[in-house]
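A.,

Following up on our hallway conversation. Structure tokens first:
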């Protein structure tokens, strides 16, 4: 898995007949459908890297990396969230850009979705809510409908692929949200994770956890 995605309702501040628009790609301090909060400042480091690279954050169609439809020349954080100004749809060059424009102008296409990697986060043990404190922004897509975020399953896969192991409560919660019953999740987590986690991160043991997780989770 290359990166995670998170969607919000499309909140266009302007849309010109040339395909330029402004709006928010992410909002701060709101518990989303995936049980996450994006913290203010989460994008600051990533935006600085994009600026130094001289590159523009790509705009994709439905997170399809082979279907770029525009770019985000100006992205900044404000008190509300990640704001994109003068985003440009490539109306003359990308067929899906014209489709996106038609959908956005008729309010048929109603979502923006960021593609990102989690660099730092914290978890409230009482509520189970994740606060995403540092994100590596990869792209911002126009999506037909902002879908329910299924970030928990994706997060544990990302963690394991990076060679890091979840805590026992985190792993059990991931299994519950993947479709296991409470008793099944507890049995799998308590029976398997302590034994497997004795290996070094990134070694054979964490690879085995990832293999088992992919076998048992109901969500691909």
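Then the amino acids I'd put at each of the 220 positions:
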């Amino acid at each position: 898995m290359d990166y995670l995605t998170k969607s919000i309702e499309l909140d266009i501040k302007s849309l010109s007949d040339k395909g330029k628009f402004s709006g928010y790609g992410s909002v701060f301090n709101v518990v989303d459908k995936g049980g996450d909060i994006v913290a203010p400042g989460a994008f600051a480091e990533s935006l600085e890297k994009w600026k130094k690279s001289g590159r523009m954050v790509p705009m994709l169609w439905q997170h399809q990396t082979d279907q770029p439809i525009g770019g985000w020349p100006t992205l900044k954080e404000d008190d509300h969230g990640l704001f994109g100004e003068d985003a440009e749809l490539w109306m003359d060059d990308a067929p899906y850009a014209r489709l996106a424009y038609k959908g956005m102008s008729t309010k048929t296409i109603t979502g923006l979705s960021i593609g990102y990697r989690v660099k730092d986060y914290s978890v409230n043990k009482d509520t189970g809510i994740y606060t995403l404190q540092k994100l590596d922004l990869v792209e911002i897509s126009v999506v037909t409908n902002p879908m329910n975020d299924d970030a928990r399953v994706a997060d544990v896969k990302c963690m394991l692929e990076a060679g890091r192991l979840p805590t026992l409560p985190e792993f059990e919660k991931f299994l519950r949200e993947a479709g296991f019953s409470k008793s099944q999740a507890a049995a799998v987590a308590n029976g398997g994770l302590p034994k497997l986690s004795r290996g070094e991160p990134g070694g054979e043991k964490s690879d085995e956890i990832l293999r088992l997780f992919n076998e048992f989770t109901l969500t691909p």
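The first strand starts at residue 4 and ends at 9. Curious whether your intuition agrees with the design.

B.
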